[in-house]
Write a structure and sequence with these properties.
This protein has 28 helices and 5 strands. It has helices at 21-33, 45-49, 72-81, 100-108, 121-137, 139-146, 150-163, 168-181, 185-196, 202-214, 218-231, 236-248, 252-265, 270-282, 286-300, 308-324, 328-345, 349-353, 355-372, 376-387, 397-407, 410-422, 428-440, 442-460, 464-477, 482-495, 503-517, 524-545, and strands spanning 14-17, 39-42, 59-63, 90-95, 113-116. The longest helix has 22 residues, at 524-545. The modification 4-aspartylphosphate is found at residue 63.
Length: 546
């Protein structure tokens, strides 16, 4: 875009997204005075989203308040996420509010500029002239970013900082952002340290705190955040960084307080709500965890960020509450909340589009509710058709793993965990949760393996009675474990011919243990073994029933 001249906006493609007709007319009049001849209006972000093309927009004006649905900040965030705005385009947020929370929210998404109503044609012309000149100056650096040549872009911004000292702070800020994107945190830290030797601008202090966090210098990052918060207690970036550092230093209570405070100041940020979610889960504050996941779900609905995972993660969060519940009444209320959430999710467009996946998820939810009620056999029957399928949706592997762990099917759970972990599609937060759950069951699993292995050794020595005791102990720890149930059946059938008065008891035990494995989808080796054991059982049962 060329610098503003007699007809500065001639042939420039201009979009105005505003739900107020009166302001549309007012802004159009100003733009026409500046030579604009290509102006398009949209009443909402929803109407504009599918019409905007990256290479067809020169200037976009977005009103912060767009009525119901997403606000202007969220809409601009979507445009950037969908890569629908070129770095050469000019984005301007317009707001009638000048409150701290609105201004902070606007600045956070980094539009090229923002205007507070009312403003004059002269002010608009001055702002557009300045923005146009800046876009022209940074054209090559921005093009390098468009071409994904981030290292080249860094060099161009650093060179511009030397050539045009008045733009140095902006250029240094862009260079640091690119260093973070390139994961060259030490280079960012070194550059920021040099800048701060001469002055202490807020942005540089904030980025130095971020670099310190990424370099795991948590105490150093906290000191910088305290300096920033001393200047402005509403500095949301400083609150975020300090919260993460405190969490890393196991100061969870203060960490949660700070991140929730940050969310209250600027709630419409996916990144911030995810941090809140992570910190809440890490500190076992499941009420806060559900709150964060619900906010993420509500924020995502009807936007470009909409995804079925937000529904799944919200319901999973309620399961965390269910497992931590202390009373039957609380468990009953949370179970009803899960059922209600599953029902409500059916109308979500992301669920409708992936109904098969959601049906699988719903099955695992039913199984987990059965586990919560102590009905392990019902849970095992519910998941049997799914856990045998190689085509189980990747998104529900975490739910399958949790259910298998709860049922004591440790080997199957480990195989699925390895599969999920090795995938490029895994969610790091969920993976961390699974690792924690697996670790919490380590002692239980070790005990189970000890009893099961002792039973196998005793069986090999022909000591079937003691082997049975060990297998039964193993099944008390993991009541639905298929391998141990088959081991117990094998030992019982070996003991049966030697039994006298206890034959009826042994037959009854056999019948019960067959219910643990009958109708289940088993791997080939287990299936063959079960078939042989059934044949042996039927043969012996006939003898004792005659």
């Amino acid at each position: 875009m060329t610098q503003i001249s007699e007809h500065p906006l001639k042939d420039k493609s201009i979009l105005i997204i505003d739900d107020q007709k009166s302001f549309q007319k007012l802004l159009k009049g100003m733009l026409l005075q500046l030579g604009a001849n290509n102006i398009v209006f949209y009443d909402s972000g929803e109407a504009a989203l599918n019409k905007i093309d990256k290479n067809s927009v020169d200037i976009v004006f977005i009103d912060y308040n767009l009525g119901q649905g997403r606000n202007g900040k969220q809409f601009l965030e979507e445009l950037k996420y969908l890569n629908k705005l070129s770095r050469h385009s000019i984005s301007i947020l317009v707001t009638g509010e000048s409150t701290r929370s609105v201004v902070l929210s606007v600045l956070e998404i980094e539009p090229d500029d923002y205007l507070i109503k009312p403003f004059s044609t002269g002010m608009l012309k001055k702002r557009l002239s300045k923005l146009s000149a800046r876009k022209k100056l940074f054209y090559d650096a921005n093009q390098a970013i468009e071409d994904k040549q981030l290292a080249v872009a860094v060099e161009k911004f650093l060179a511009l900082a030397e050539q045009h000292p008045r733009t140095s702070q902006f250029c240094f800020k862009r260079a640091c952002q690119l260093y973070f994107e390139l994961e060259e945190h030490q280079k960012a830290y070194d550059l920021l340290s040099q800048i701060l030797e001469k002055a202490r601008p807020t942005w540089a202090l904030t980025y130095l705190a971020q670099a310190s966090l990424l370099l795991k210098n948590y105490d150093g990052a906290i000191r910088i955040c305290d300096e920033l918060l001393g200047q402005n207690r509403f500095n949301i970036d400083a609150l975020d960084i300090k919260a993460i550092c405190l969490n890393k230093l196991n100061q969870g209570k203060e960490s949660l307080f700070l991140i929730e405070q940050s969310c209250n100041i600027s709630p419409h940020s996916f990144a911030r709500q995810r941090k809140f979610s992570d910190i809440a889960h890490a500190n076992n504050d499941y009420n806060a965890f559900v709150k964060a996941q619900n906010t993420l779900l509500l924020m995502s609905q009807g936007t470009a960020f909409a995804h079925i995972d937000y529904q799944l993660n919200y319901i999973r969060a309620i399961f965390n509450q269910l497992e931590a519940a202390n009373s039957q009444q609380e468990r009953s209320e949370l179970t009803n909340q899960i059922k209600s959430s599953l029902k409500n999710a059916q109308s979500d467009s992301t669920v409708v589009e992936q109904q098969t996946l959601f049906d699988e998820f719903k099955t695992f939810c039913k199984a987990r509710m059965s586990v919560s009620e102590g009905d392990f056999l019902e849970a095992k029957k519910l998941i049997a058709p799914l856990t045998s399928e190689q085509s189980l949706s990747h998104s529900v592997l975490p739910d399958s793993i949790i259910t298998l762990l709860d049922l004591g099917e440790f080997d199957d759970a480990k195989a699925q965990l390895d599969k999920y972990q090795s995938s490029n599609q895994h969610n790091s937060q969920i993976l961390s949760q699974l690792a924690q759950r697996n670790a919490s069951l380590a002692d239980k699993q070790s005990q189970f393996e000890q009893y099961n292995n002792q039973g196998i050794e005793l069986y090999k020595k022909g000591n079937f009675q003691d082997a049975i005791v060990q297998f039964e102990m193993a099944l008390k720890i993991a009541p639905m474990n298929t391998g141990s149930a088959l081991n117990l059946l094998q030992a019982l059938l070996q003991l049966l011919p030697r039994a006298n008065k206890s034959a009826d008891v042994i037959l009854e035990k056999c019948q019960y243990n067959f219910t643990l494995v009958d109708g289940m989808a088993l791997p080939p080796q287990h299936a063959k073994r079960l078939e042989d054991l059934k044949f042996e059982y039927n043969k012996l049962a006939k003898l004792y029933k005659q």
